[in-house]
Structures are given as structure tokens and as C-alpha cells.
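Step 1: inspect the first sequence and its C-alpha cells.
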Amino acid sequence: MTIPHSKTNLLISLILCLFLTACKDVPPIGPAGEGPYSLCSYRDNLEAEGYSSARLSYPCEATSQPLPAVTLSGGYTNFKEQMYWLADHLTKHGYVVITVTPNNMFGGLRYWTDAHRDAYFQLLEENMRPESPVAFRIDTSRIVLSGYSNGGFGAMSVAKELGSAIHSVMGMASYFPLIGGEDFSEVEANTLLMAGTLDTTVFPFTIENTFNDFTSNAQHTFVQFNGVTHFEWIDIGRYHNKFRTLMVSWLDDVMNQDKQWQGYLFGEEHEQHVNDNWYRDYIWKGPVSIPNIATLTFEQR
């Protein structure tokens, strides 16, 4: 029997991971725990040419200030439902999230670029549509593009295209082609690029190379998790609480929220994660706001 290359990579990664002590998740506490909001969502009136389907989730409770918003997609072969583990969590922590499935889950990278572009403009439209449940509740100056694998490429591509209109980008095991890829060095948005040491589909060095090429004075972060394969970032993944911990803390910091989770980025909680061998790489560049320190550039390996 011949096993397809992608399935062979997954099998090898899973076998290796069985022998690693880092291959376990953590309890849902702190930024990985339940947020203060309830989850509401809808699928009506979200049609767009750039994606095949969408769901918009938002905090049910009224808020005194407009909320940051996120576009979110999976990668090759993924439906939007496979990313609800993250969409729902972010929504309960105070984010409006539009999760989309591209028009062709088996197509080229442009399908994920199209999906994120139209998801971004759909957020703007829903914010202005009087009948929308999120009418005038979105802070359009704080929109994040986020995706896994091909979706991470699409998010970065739209951030490059739209420039300063995009506040931040989060990429999970983002696919950046080794040959003929785009130059993302001048992306203006804050970026969080995440990789896994056991990823044999998207090699971590391709993600780190993209990170190293950034030239803007935004906040750029590269994190490589120990024991993580390419397939941990969808609904079947085993490390969702680790990922939630980092992403919610990072978003809370760059969005200039109350920074209640900053210790998970730089403080006592972060040091515990380092001691627990969460990370192979944890690298920041650009201005980082820390109490009593105006800016910080550091590399931890």
C-alpha cells in the first residue's frame, strides 16, 4: 500500500510526538480559560464573492466601547467549522470574529487571499448595516487577520495589500512558498507568527525567515512550540490551550486593552512556560510595552 506524502508526514510526526514529554496540553486557565462574555453568532447576510460561507460571532452582552474584530480561516481542505475552537474562544474574550471557508479548499493560495479580503470588507459592512447585530460595535481601527497554513498566507497577503488599515496579523503554521513567494518585508501590521517543531508540512524556518524579513517598526513576534505538528491548529489539535494562552495574551497586549495577561508574555507565568519547555523559539522585535520599560528587543532560544 502506498501512503500519500502528506499522510506519511502526519504519521511520522504523531509517532515521534508520542515519545515527547512536551506533547501535552495545559489546563484552561488564565487567557486559555472562559472569557467574560457569552457567545452569539449568525450566518445570514454574510454572502460575498471571495468565500463560500461565513459565520460571524460576537459577545452577546452590550459593551461600552467598540470591539476589536478578527477574520479567521483554516488552511488547505479546511472548513470554517474546524476553526471554531479559536473563534468561539476569542469571542468570549471580547472579539467579533468572522470565520470563513474559501471558495476552493483545494485551490491555490489566491483563494485564501480572496477570502480574507472579503471577510475584512464584510466586517466593515456589518458594522454599518443598521439591522446587523454588530452595527456600530466594531472598532474598525483594530482589525486582525488570522489564518492557519494557507489561511495564514492569505491573511498576510491582504495585510500587505491594505497596509495601515490592518492592525495585526496572526499566522498559525503559515504556508510561505520557498520558490516564487511574496515579499512581505514591508507589512505594516503587528504580526504574531507561530510554528511547531514537528511540522513537516510547513517547515518552521520558512516562517522564521518571513519574520526576520520584516522591516516596519511594528511589533513582530515569532514563536515555535515544541512537539507541535502541522495539524494541531484545527479542531482535532491537542494543544489548543497553549495556543489560546499565547494568542489571547498577545492580542490583549497589542490591542492596548487592559493588559491583564501580560505576565503570560514576559512575566512569571511566561517563565513557567519556558521552564515547562513550551517553546523552541520565542523572539520579539520592535517596540514592546512592558511596565517600566519603554521598548524591548530580545531573542530567547
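Step 2: inspect the second sequence and its C-alpha cells, then contrast the two.
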Amino acid sequence: MYRNDSNYKTNACSKALWRRYHEGIIPVIPDIKLFSAREGNLMRGRNPVDYALLMESCGAPVISVVTEEEHFGGSLKLLEKISEKISVPVLRKDFIKTKQQVKDSKQAGADAVLLIVSMLDRRLLAELVEFTLANGIEPLVEVHNEEEFNMLEGLDLSFIGINNRNILKYEVDNGDVATTELLGRYKRKDAFLLSESSITDKADVMRAISAGANGVLVGTAILQAEDSVCKYKQLAYSYGSKTESIEELSSFNLLNKISCRFKRSVNDYK
């Protein structure tokens, strides 16, 4: 492990995100996903470990790694390789349903694991939350609707996610940030609220933050960008930019397309 002591401990992910938030920059978690049922091959021959290092160099406070194999092409081995090389906290995204998966996550170097409410009953959700915390791992508990948000009552959570798409459909539906706009009103003051999926540009980030999210998780939009570095920096904007109106972003996006016309491959940063 290359993590420093201030990061590598319980609640490492949310603490790193809060630090970035209080620095006046919207925290953006890049999501490393090899394959998408909707978009196909996302890495396009790039080395995912190099890509993780590239995102860290851009200022990413946390790196997310999708380890689910059947639908997204990930693996625990991928998580292990990335966690060995980067110094920021790592979130494991998978269909976590057992305590053994939590143990495996910790052994592979994860600082946090995703717990998807739609895949767990209330009793198992509570057990897994308690077990992850007892093992020094932070649970990111993900919801998609009001009913699922209500299931979080009574749970001691520091990290909550709103998935704008339906994970039960493997995120091939046409969800958008409207889900965060609907559920953001239920946010807790003491928990970091993350908006996930369907975020493609700065306007989407602004909508999510305006709805109550403290940060966003973005995978495909950064992976498919002509310049992943420039795309990341567009999304991780400073607070001063929040005063812009959504309408003003048409000219913003045009200027950034011009400024980001040079392509970079991840291999350039080996």
C-alpha cells in the first residue's frame, strides 16, 4: 500500500471528498469501468492502472474501480493492481451481498465498498453496514428512489450515493440527473452525498450540486472524452463557477472543446 496515514483509515473516502469540497472544488470521482453494456469497450486498449494514475495526477480525491466481471469486465485483481499504485482512497463498485465480499475487498486494497439498497433487504443492509465499519471499510450506500432512501433511517452512514440510472437494468436505461434533483432533498447534514451516473458535462454537475449533492461520480464521459485530463478538470470546477447559469454553458462548452482539441492517450503518461 502507498496510502498515507491521513487517508488510509475508516471513512477515508468521504473524508478525502469533504477535504476537496472545503477547498472550494467540486469533488469528482473518476469511475474505472472496462466495459459497459450501453457503450461497449471503454478502455479501448488503454492500461487501467495508468489511467488511475492519470486521474490521480488530475487531482481526483478518490478513485472508483468497478470489479463486477459479467456485465462490466472488472475483477478483484484489477482493484488490487490499482490500489497498490495510487495513494488516494479506492472505492470498490460491485454487487456486494456477503461479508466475504467485504473481506475480499479489504484484502484487495479497497477503502470503501458500494452497497446497493435495491439488491439488499433491510436486515442484510444493516448487517453489511455494521460489518464494513467494523472492518475499517467505509460503506457507500446507494439509492435510486424515495423508498430506498427511507430504508436508510437508523443507519449510521457517512457516505450516501444516488444512482441516476437503474442498476437493476445494468444502467442501460435513460436516467438522468433528475433523480438526484428528486432525492437530494432527503440528504443528511452529516453524510457526503454523491450523485452517480448520467453525468456528461458541467451542466449536469451543476444540476446535481444545486440539488444537494456534495460531489459526483463520473465514468463514461471521462473515459470517452478526446482528452480525459481536460474533461476531468472541466467537471471538477471551483465554487466560483456555480454562479453561472445553465444557459451560459453553451458558450463555455464550445470554448472548452476548442481548448481541448489536442488528444492524449493514457499511454503518454506511463
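Step 3: confirm your contrast with the notes below.
The radius of gyration is 17 Å. Confidence is low (pLDDT under 50) at residues 1-8, 241-259, 261-270.
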